[in-house]
Amino acid sequence: MQNNSLSHNVIISDTSCLIALSNIDQLELLKKLFGHVTITPEVFEEFTKKYKENIPEWIDVREAKNRKKVIELNTKLGLGESSSIVLATETPSALVIIDEKKAREYALNIGLNVIGTVGIIRKATDINIIGAYQIFCVNGKISLERNPFFSELNGELV
Q1: How far apart are CA 31 and CA 27, in angstroms?
Q2: What residue ranges define each of the domains in the chain, with the CATH number in brackets?
Q3: By three-state DSSP, how is residue 51 classified?
Q4: pLDDT digit string, tens, across residues 106-135
């Protein structure tokens, strides 16, 4: 069952969310929504390889204990997704952020709480962390465009 409320103890992110939010200069949404986010060393490597910079201090790195399961799952899914899913299975009340369809389906099928990057942006909009945006996903890339029909003065559609 998908339960992506903001009341989870540990938020675990796969690489795709970090990259997508970084690409639109919105990585801080994760901090504003959750305070702290946890990633695996595999996600850390994937992210820092692409961005060649350190991760923010509010992102913690924690390794999944069941390395055998990570390797087994990696035969079906990417390494970052595999390690994130295994860490989430080891972490009570975790919410895992995954965008890739096959990985999301797997995580949901084993009972994990799952949300994607678009869901993060929607939640941030719903609780007024960011203004109203139209969310576009073209060829796997997310972009935001301010919704011209949203009045920031009263928070309603005009």
Answers
A1: 8
A2: 10-129 (3.40.50.1010)
A3: helix
A4: 999 999 999 999 889 888 888 888 765 555
